[in-house]
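INTERNAL AUDIT FORM
Audit reference: QA-55
Scope: verify that the stored structure record matches its stored sequence.
Auditor: D.O.
Record contents follow.
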Amino acid sequence: PAALLTIPGLEVASGLKVLKGQVALYLRYLRKFSVDHAQDMTRLRGHLAASDAEGARRTAHNLKGTAGNMGATGVQQLATELDAAFKSGAASTEVERLIAALDSELGQLAAALELALPAESVTVSLAQVDWALLRQVLTELEPLLLSGNLKANRLVSTHAALLKAALGPLAAQFEWQLAQFLHAEALKTLAQARAQLDEKWTE
């Protein structure tokens, strides 16, 4: 959507480059980024309140990487500064300043994305799952994940509704791992899901 090009701190071309120009996949990941990371600073503050400095730093570090993949340069820059502040042992006042700035940037980006992104596609219920097609998709997907091939992300995007219905509770974890390009971890989650689906193959 053209509206994405007007969002401050979002370089669409950069995000599309990471995904080799796959627009539909990029839009899906942007939506997921908005949902998954909008409350990151609340979680980060929770780590600090629990004296878990490493957990707080890891939250900033992960956000930095994911924002970079999405082309969210405003968030990426602030998350980079926050990550560095944790590593250098910066004063608590400086850390809080960066947290507040990053929280504001995330909120503005999430709100802008909500307005700019198109509605998600129709979902599929478990009763509507085409088990033969699912078997074919999973068989094609596994070697792509094993080799870390970005075609895995495109395949999952194409069959997103089918996979979400079939994988059940593991679907969110699987999608998150793919969005982070954690293909090895996604493969393990897929294997776990397949074990739970074995009984369906005989239906």
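Auditor finding: record pair retrieved intact. The mean pLDDT is 86.
Action required: none
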